[in-house]
């Protein structure tokens, strides 16, 4: 049954309800859990719904060449660089309803709030829902914000998903084409700033009793692909001392990754989150294993030192077990500072809403903002989430925190307008 359009006013409560609505089929590719990979059926359905909400909020909605949804709320000066507010609409498998989507919906609620009051600004506001922040389908992340920021690598266009479907074919299924993909790039002069609201995905705000925080920087990330090749053989006949078991070697490597990640400062983290075992048969000694390694730290030098240690430790394990190791960097995202001036405006906006100075924190999670920083100054607003849990279906936020975030976003936009265009125009000019 088609739902009637909502007529309630913009609010944090409505933002939460909208994220909840998008948390299940048809907006998920699985009916068992939320999984909304890039260019899947759930993604397409979500974009239809989001486009309707954008239109209702007074925006012109379109899908760009990379499959991002973009809604534009015109400003008083049509040629002035636009303020972009956004986050991502894709989800990890069995993910939560607010990671990414809440930032997109809060962008729409921010515009709706102004549209209801007849306010326009010197700049246009564009709300953008990036299609792929998580690496939800292809083995690298932030593909579509990299397209918008104009920082795609040659290898990105040759990506294929786990089922062997290439980016070109996936785009075709979405009515888009590979040749046009990079055309999603925006020009520097067209974008005044990029602002992203996101759940913290960590425990700090909750532990310290803050509803909101302002992000000072986003941690550096490496994503590696490790392929261990041993010798497949009969599980009943191959003597233990003669084996070159790729899985046993990989298991030792996983523990080395964990040990090295745990031996540095608290913000250093290293994770093996995916593994494929070949041939993956109970009575065959594994001959090949492929796994991912994700290494992050607030400072690039700390991440790089840990990555070097991991390379060395894994090479030593491979040599000792007489298996081969092929380790390739799939993604290298440097640590990204947020813009100091914009972050100050965001901090003032938070103080206006909560009456207290916001907690300033570094994000260990990656965000499209770290890519958009190539294009424009960026700022991020964090919202407390329950238990700091994310990438998990139990992810939860409080309605009143989301309302505070909406108010902080609107206060931020008004402050940015004053900083860019001076005092607001008289009512009749609005
Ligand atoms: C995205 O959520 C990431 O930090 O990997
Ligand atoms: Mn995520
Ligand atoms: Mn996210």
Fraction of residues in H or I helices: 25-40%
Shape designation: globular
Main β-sheet, in a few words? 9 strands, mixed
Q: From the alpha-carbon coordinates, what is the Rg to the nearest angstrom? A: 23 Å
Strand-pairing-aware structural class: alpha+beta
Distance between the termini: 39 Å
Percent of residues in beta strands: 15-25%
| Total beta-strand segments | 16
Query: What is the tally of helical segments?
Result: 12
> What is the residue-mean pLDDT, rounded to a whole number?
95
- Summarize the helix and strand pattern as letters: HHEEEHEHHHEHEEEHEEEEHEEHEHEH
Brief sketch in words of this structure:
The protein has 430 residues and is of the alpha+beta class. Helix content is 34%, strand content 21%.
Topology at a glance:
Elements: H1 12-21, H2 41-56, E1 60-63, E2 69-73, E3 82-88, H3 101-117, E4 125-130, H4 143-149, H5 167-172, H6 178-181, E5 191-199, H7 204-208, E6 212-218, E7 220-229, E8 233-234, H8 246-262, E9 269-271, E10 275-278, E11 284-285, E12 288-297, H9 300-321, E13 324-333, E14 336-337, H10 340-354, E15 359-363, H11 368-372, E16 378-383, H12 399-421
Parallel strand pairs: 3-4, 3-5, 5-16, 6-15
Antiparallel strand pairs: 1-2, 2-4, 6-14, 6-16, 7-12, 7-13, 8-11, 9-12, 10-12
Helix pairs in contact: 1-3, 1-12, 3-12, 8-9, 10-12
């Amino acid at each position: 049954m088609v739902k009637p359009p909502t007529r309630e006013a913009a609010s944090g409560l409505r933002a939460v309800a909208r994220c909840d609505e998008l948390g299940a089929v048809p907006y998920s590719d699985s009916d068992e859990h939320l999984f909304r990979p890039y260019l899947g059926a759930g993604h397409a359905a979500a974009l239809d719904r989001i486009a309707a909400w954008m239109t209702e909020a007074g925006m012109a909605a379109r899908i760009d060449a990379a499959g991002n949804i973009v809604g534009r709320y015109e400003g008083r000066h049509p040629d002035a660089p636009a303020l972009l507010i956004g986050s991502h609409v894709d989800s990890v498998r069995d993910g939560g309803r607010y990671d990414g989507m809440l930032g997109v919906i809060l962008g729409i609620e921010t515009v709706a709030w102004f549209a209801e009051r007849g306010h326009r600004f010197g700049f246009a506001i564009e709300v953008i829902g990036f299609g792929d922040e998580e690496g939800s389908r292809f083995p690298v992340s932030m593909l579509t914000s990299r397209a918008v920021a104009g920082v795609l690598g040659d290898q990105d266009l040759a990506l294929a998903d786990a089922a062997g479907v290439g980016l070109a074919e996936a785009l075709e299924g979405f009515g888009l084409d590979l040749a046009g993909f990079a055309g999603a790039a925006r020009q520097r002069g067209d974008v005044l700033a990029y602002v992203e609201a996101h759940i913290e995905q960590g425990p700090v705000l909750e532990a310290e009793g803050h509803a909101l925080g302002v992000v000072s920087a986003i941690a550096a990330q490496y994503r590696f692909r490790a392929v261990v090749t041993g010798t497949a053989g009969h599980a009943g006949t191959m003597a233990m001392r003669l084996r070159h078991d790729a899985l046993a070697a990989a298991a030792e490597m996983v523990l080395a990754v964990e040990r090295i990640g745990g031996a540095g400062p608290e913000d250093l983290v290293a994770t093996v989150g995916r593994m494929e075992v070949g041939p993956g048969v109970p009575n065959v000694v594994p001959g090949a294993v492929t796994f991912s390694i994700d290494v992050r730290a607030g400072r690039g030098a700390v991440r790089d030192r840990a990555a070097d240690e991991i390379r060395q430790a894994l090479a030593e394990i491979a040599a000792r077990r007489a298996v081969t190791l092929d380790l390739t960097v799939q993604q290298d995202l440097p640590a990204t500072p947020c813009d100091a001036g914009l972050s100050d405006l965001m901090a003032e906006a938070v103080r206006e809403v909560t009456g207290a100075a916001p907690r300033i924190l570094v994000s260990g999670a990656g965000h499209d903002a770290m890519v958009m920083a190539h294009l424009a100054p960026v700022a991020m607003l964090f919202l407390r989430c329950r238990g700091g849990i994310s990438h998990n279906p139990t992810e939860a936020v409080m309605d009143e925190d989301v309302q505070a975030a909406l108010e902080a976003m609107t206060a931020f936009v008004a402050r940015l307008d004053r900083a860019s265009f001076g005092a607001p125009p008289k009512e009749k000019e609005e």
